[in-house]
Amino acid sequence: MLERLCALTGAEIRFEPLDLRNREALEALLAEARVDAVVHFAGLKAVGESVEKPLLYYENNVGGTIALLQAMAAHGVRSLVFSSSATVYGDPERLPIPEDHALRPTNPYGKSKLMIEHLLADHAASDPAFRYAALRYFNPIGAHPSGRIGEDPRGIPNNLLPFVAQVAVGKLPALKVFGNDYATSDGTGVRDYIHVMDLARGHVAALDYLSRKKHSITCNLGAGRGYSVLEVVKAFERASGRKVPLEFAARRAGDVAASYADPSLAAARLGWKAALDIDAMCRDVWRWQSQNPHGY
Description:
This protein is an alpha/beta fold. It has two domains: about 140 residues, NAD(P)-binding Rossmann-like Domain (Rossmann fold); about 120 residues, UDP-galactose 4-epimerase, domain 1. The chain is built from nine helices and 13 strands. Strands 3-4-5-10 form a four-stranded parallel beta sheet, with helices on both faces. The longest helix is centred in the N-terminal third of the chain and has 21 residues. The chain is globular and about 55 Å long. The two termini are about 20 Å apart.
């Protein structure tokens, strides 16, 4: 699987397509570039697919991270921001979810993220100069407010907002809602949605923290409140002015009823908090999708 690693070479930004599991290729890139820190986004991320193909998820997500850490160590790069996930918490025993909540992922995707967090902690313990920020994302949605950059998944989308947007633009006939019998206000799953622009600011704040504080941190990145699937659909209908037809289906394996963050640690340590609400998220998704009805 091809991933992209951004190397800063002087004033030039160059993108090299490579397989993150290919340590030799990673080392060649790090030997050539001047890299102070790595932001690690690369990985497979569909919960349902991870249940069907667990070995693929462990090989790609965990194996790729091991190769990356080995290459970084070989070239003296000792600062990393990792995109972890709220799925490490599993079915929450209390809400909102703080970082000290029990870690009980219910699917191989979440388990792969937790394994990587353990890898990072063990690596940091063995190398005092290595530091990391593990950012437990909740549910990133949205698009760049210009409408020029958005999410364009291949095939049927696995995530809610691209699916809703493609229905609204007429690319798909109806939104498939997985489960309407959860113990929530309207029976549909509740999630903490965070605008991708807020998420980007969170990564900048994490890099700044690692540079200033010189030690590691694990924290949630979320808005701190939950919206049900039906609430998100209504917000998108407001943003787009279009009706989104629904089709209810059985729950997906590995999904939980509700999950939303306690983001207070990120506020206290990183000086970060989410600023954009669900209406802004939906407006920006619709702006991108309506300008790009067939994707890129």
